[in-house]
TrEMBL record:
InterPro entries: Pirin (IPR012093), Pirin_C_dom (IPR008778), Pirin_N_dom (IPR003829), RmlC-like_jellyroll (IPR014710), RmlC_Cupin_sf (IPR011051). Belongs to the pirin family. Residues 300-323 are annotated as: Disordered. Transmembrane segments: none annotated. Residues 306-315 have a biased composition (Pro residues). Residues 194-294 form the Pirin C-terminal domain. It comes from the Bacteria. It holds the Pfam family Pirin. This is Pirin family protein.
Length: 323
């Protein structure tokens, strides 16, 4: 998915200075951002107070939106470097096309994982015949320095491991490992992403890694996370230092996405759809996209690619987890 803001601000992130060494409760409110022709998302990362959670560097939550009789998601071809995108749906479908030739419809609880590596471009759209409701999350993972120039690739995994955390609690492992179950998706850092479904009144104590930092995004319903009520569309940053995470559904069934990982030590600069280490790399990527080099062609999308926004007037420099 693309950051389609006309004047995106540079974001400096990474490093360990801003990592909470112990358990915390830090509610991350969303900001509403238009995406494409007809979709508005709630952006939770990066934000003013928190830039990353492990290697997770971007979180958008959208829906549930009634798109019956509407075009739904329409995100034209756009470029990426230095990251992986994770497409995750609770309702609806997204048709993915990219410049390595992938054409794949991603459906609820299926993993669409794109590794940009050195360069890729892709588009995302609701199919012409689509379900009436669209609801999901778009997530980015920063690639570590030794892997950020890998060849671009796309993976689709329809069958993901599911673990139970007590009566009425199921966890689908999206990426990384949870409670001994491992996702088939390729990951390059110690990481976890899991979708948790809680029946009405269900409670569990989920095993987690003390060395990981965590955050939980409530997708639907109200969830009590470590005693803190979190409403849909909000994310609770939890810090490090836990070996289990108490969860409870409040007032009906609920769903959430748990994100975690080893704190990302490298300092990064992120601008528009690019994750890099220097402003010069960002400027070169923008130049290459504008000139039609390096990113390839997305075939089959009915529309023009997204033009690159102008670079900001100030230098882009990585400065770690500025807060």
């Amino acid at each position: 998915m693309s950051d389609l803001q006309l004047r995106p601000a540079p974001v400096v992130c990474g490093g360990r200075d801003g990592v909470a060494g112990g358990p915390v409760h830090e509610l991350l409110p969303p900001r509403r951002v238009p995406l494409g022709e007809s979709t508005v998302v709630r952006r939770l990362l990066p934000g003013l107070g928190r830039r990353m959670v492990g290697a997770w560097c971007f979180v958008d939550h959208y829906g549930p939106d009634d798109i019956a009789g509407e075009p739904g998601m329409q995100v034209p071809p756009h470029p990426h470097i230095g990251l992986q995108t994770v497409s995750w749906l609770h309702d609806g479908e997204v048709l993915h096309r990219d410049s390595v030739g992938s054409l794949q419809t991603v459906r609820p609880r299926e993993l669409g994982l794109m590794t940009s590596g050195r360069a890729i471009s892709h588009s995302e759209e609701s199919p012409r015949r689509h379900a009436p409701i669209l609801h999901g999350a778009q997530l980015w993972v920063a690639l570590p320095d030794e892997h950020r120039h890998v060849p671009p690739a796309f993976e689709h995994h329809a069958g993901l491991p599911v673990v139970t955390g007590g009566t009425g609690v199921e966890a689908t492992v999206i990426l990384g490992e949870l409670d001994g179950a491992a996702s088939p998706g390729t990951s390059y850092t110690p990481i976890v992403g899991a979708d948790l479904a809680l029946a009405d009144g269900a409670a569990a104590r989920l095993p987690v890694e003390p060395d990981f930092e965590y955050a939980a995004l409530t997708m639907s319903g109200t969830v009590e996370i470590d005693g803190e009520r979190v409403e849909p569309g909000s994310m609770l940053y939890l810090g490090c230092g836990r070996d289990e995470l108490p969860l409870r559904a409040v007032d009906g069934a609920a769903g959430l996405v748990l994100l975690g990982g080893e704190p990302f030590a490298e300092k990064l600069v992120m601008w528009w759809n690019f994750v890099a280490r220097t402003g010069e790399e960002i400027a070169q990527a923008r130049h290459d996209w504008t000139d039609g080099d390096r990113f390839g062609e997305v075939r089959g999308y009915d529309g023009a690619p997204v033009p690159a926004p102008p670079l900001p007037g100030t230098p882009l420099k990585p400065r770690g987890r500025a807060r």
